[in-house]
Amino acid sequence: MKTYDLICIGGGSAGFNAARLAASLGRKAAVIDGAKELGGLCILKGCMPSKTLLYTAEILHHARHAAKFGLRVTGARADMKAIHARKRKIIGEFADYRVRALTAGRFDLIRAYAKFIDPHTVLLSNGKKLRAKRFLIGTGSRISVPPVPGLKDAKFWTSDDVLDLDFLPKSVIVLGGGIVACELAQFLNRIGTRVTLIQRSQHILRDHSDEASTVVQKAFVDEGIELFAGTQLQGITQDRRGTTVKFLHDGKTVTRRAAHLFNALGREPATSGLGLDTAGVRTHPGGQIAINRWQQTSAPHIYAAGDCSGPAEIVHIAIAQAELAVRHAFDVKGIKPVDYDQLLNVVFTDPQLATVGRLERDLDEQGVKYLSASYPFDDHGKSILMEAKYGYVKVIAEPKRGRILGAEIVGKDAGELIHCISIALAQRATVFDLLRAPWYHPTLAEILTYPLEEIAGQIKP
């Protein structure tokens, strides 16, 4: 039976980067992945295909609203087969690059699924067994099907299906208001589909501030998405003509019909079937693997990273966790746990929503004092001339010296602008440090100087 220093179960961002690092440390490593396509969620069914389509839809949106800029653009429409072909080409190139990296020979790639049969041995779906001194579980997540009456038996789309569309749907009901639901609902609306979005909580993007989600929600409604928040789903029925969803909203029963149903009610850790109990690995209710600050599970030689362990389903976090796990497993000195106080998050709706660091809600819960200031895009020169008037920038800082604690940006290119603050946070910079830097006029980025100046003015010398 073949034995490795490290076996990574799952070949996505966590598993690939763990094996790559282990090999660079001179360790014998392997990646086990039985998926039909290699590359992981981000490349194949997540970040990259969705952002490819979102940018395409943004261009179409601007073309259809060119009159705002004094331009005449007629006949702008989505050619779904061409959009689909372009996306497949781009994603194929990304996936091919990852496959070449996985098969370059620095570590073994085993095309199978794995299940623990004891704490150091896995049984593969091809019947073979492998042993390892240490393991890294990076199996990601999968679409969940909550107990909504009628949903389990309904024929619904998942994000995989929406990302793979090669035709223009006439109408779609979107269940959910999280990041995936919101990004793809706007994509569908902008390519010409009639979209109804039904969200159970009081606000879409409920993991973000009410203030931020309200801005995105208004933009959606202004663009023509029919949006219901604060609902209670009562039942889903289907016939040959489409789907009917019945739900409570503002104390009344509401019914909506569409040709298609998109289940975007969330994802769950893909951990069932791994034999974790046999390996002594504890999970939380729902299947998420319990880990400590070094990414160790309840079995100290088994680590976990990425979506299957949380706390954030973000690619750069999965990579950081995986690399930390490998360095800890092989006794690399001077390592530190992943710093979630610098957590960076971007929602690629239009307007975009981006956050970094510690936000007001977190600080309030912890009883931490802070200063915050914001400034709206609709009063800023560059955003006005770009017709990018939704949203605001907000900076949060420590009250004595003005050290940056976090930021929240809702607006044009928020995902790019947030890195001005991300770098400042990593460098433990103050508002005064940032104000010493030149900010070019007219740029979107200079809008950040307004809240920085406001905070600086509140701090006594």
Can you give a write-up of this model?
The chain is of the alpha/beta class. It has 3 domains: 203 residues, FAD/NAD(P)-binding domain (3-Layer(bba) Sandwich), CATH 3.50.50.60; 107 residues, FAD/NAD(P)-binding domain (3-Layer(bba) Sandwich); 118 residues, FAD/NAD-linked reductase, C-terminal dimerisation domain (Enolase-like, domain 1, 2-Layer Sandwich). The chain contains 14 helices and 21 strands. Strands 1, 2, 3, 4, 5, 6 and 16 form a 7-stranded mixed β-sheet that branches. It has a 5-stranded antiparallel β-sheet with strand order 17-18-21-20-19, with helices on both faces. A 4-stranded parallel β-sheet has the order 10-9-8-14, covered by helices on one side. The longest helix has 23 residues. The termini are far apart. The relative contact order is 0.11. The mean pLDDT is 95.
Quick gist of this model?
By secondary structure, this protein is of the alpha/beta class. 33% of the residues lie in helices and 25% in strands. The strands form 5 sheets. Strands 1, 2, 3, 4, 5, 6 and 16 form a 7-stranded mixed sheet that branches. Strands 17-18-21-20-19 form a 5-stranded antiparallel sheet, sandwiched between helices.
Query: Which residue ranges are poorly predicted, with pLDDT under 50 across at least 5 consecutive positions?
Result: none
How many strands, which pairing sense, and closed or not: the largest β-sheet? 7 strands, mixed
Q: What spatial form do the alpha-carbon principal axes imply?
A: globular
Q: What is the averaged pLDDT score? A: 95
The CATH superfamily name of the largest domain is FAD/NAD(P)-binding domain
Percent of residues in helices comes to 25-40%
The value of Rg in angstroms is 24 Å
